[in-house]
Design goal:
By secondary structure, the protein is α+β, with helices and mostly antiparallel strands. It has 3 helices and 2 strands, in the order E-E-H-H-H. The N and C termini lie far apart (47 Å).
């Protein structure tokens, strides 16, 4: 039997046993008030590492980005990529 447990922090606030869509919807609506929980409050971070309210779009050098990504990649991932490219090249 499915059991849905609703947590706020590490405290259990509600438990639903069984697949009851109406009870699930009402419980989610009851506990989905973003003002009462501290979840996802704040500015956050962008991909550039600056605050979330940046007005200008950053520019990227694609070739430098790919070179950096390749040099920082796990060696096992590099081998997997090379093998996949070789497979596509020789057998397809």
């Amino acid at each position: 039997m499915p059991t849905f447990i609703f947590l706020v922090g590490d405290k259990e606030v509600h438990r639903i046993r069984g697949a009851n869509p109406a009870a699930l919807k009402s419980t989610i609506a009851q506990h989905a008030n973003p003002a009462s929980s501290g979840a996802f409050s704040g500015q956050g971070q962008t991909l550039s590492g600056k605050g979330g309210s940046s007005s200008s779009a950053p520019t990227y050098n694609v070739s430098n980005s790919l070179t950096t990504t390749w040099s920082n990649m796990n060696p096992q991932a590099k081998v997997l990529i090379v093998l996949c490219v070789a497979y596509v090249y020789f057998w397809l």
